[in-house]
């Protein structure tokens, strides 16, 4: 005897609602046909919940649905405690529009050449980050102290936003390493060892009509 399930029941059974204890709510989905079309296949659920870009796969640390801000971690970036070979952070054109890094995510370019374009022609792209300095960064962090020791001075660094690394690669910027921190508004007088390393993203959905889409 063949039993037919209602379409709604079949749809619900195919859409997972969590991955590794992280809720999967609208507009996201990790299964075919789930979530908003523009966010389709943006996340992948294996052992961990992953955010996929052309440059790498990043572990999702959490999603704040009220603030509409997922946070991800770049396993290839350097931090205060570990130095990694550099690579570029690359997002697809559609991702950079609909889920870009949030304004309070700061990209810190490290060990830059004094001839770097970011320190000369595009100096205006570097900004003051809560009163922090290159000297503080190189002096406080075990991993970054190496740059100071090798050059016998303080190599230039640059605190900048996502648009800088979106349009210029690390080779063009002429900086050997980078790190990223978020929630920067709350990091005044906080030492680099206690910064929150990673990337906060920001997305938007219409204020009305999403409850029905989510259901």
Summary keywords:
215 residues, alpha+beta, 5-stranded antiparallel sheet, 3-stranded antiparallel sheet, 7 helices, 10 strands, 20% strand, WAK_GUB, Wall-associated receptor kinase galacturonan-binding domain-containing protein, signal, polysaccharide binding
Spell out the blueprint of helices and strands:
Elements: H1 7-14, E1 18-19, E2 22-23, E3 43-45, E4 49-52, E5 57-64, E6 69-73, H2 93-98, E7 106-112, H3 134-140, H4 145-151, E8 158-160, H5 162-167, H6 170-173, E9 175-181, E10 199-200, H7 210-214
Antiparallel strand pairs: 1-2, 3-4, 4-5, 5-6, 6-10, 7-8, 7-9
Helix pairs in contact: 3-4
Keywords: Signal
Main location: membrane
GO cellular component, one term: membrane
Describe the structure.
There is one protein chain. This protein is 20% helix and 20% strand. It has helices spanning 7-14, 93-98, 134-140, 145-151, 162-167, 170-173, 210-214, and strands at residues 18-19, 22-23, 43-45, 49-52, 57-64, 69-73, 106-112, 158-160, 175-181, 199-200. Helix 3 (134-140) crosses helix 4 (145-151). The model is unreliable at 7-12 (pLDDT under 50). The protein contains 7 helices and 10 strands. It has a 5-stranded antiparallel beta sheet with strand order 3-4-5-6-10, with no helix packed on it. The longest helix is centred in the first third of the chain and has 8 residues, at 7-14. With 215 residues, the protein is α+β, with helices and mostly antiparallel strands. The radius of gyration is 20 Å and the shape is elongated.
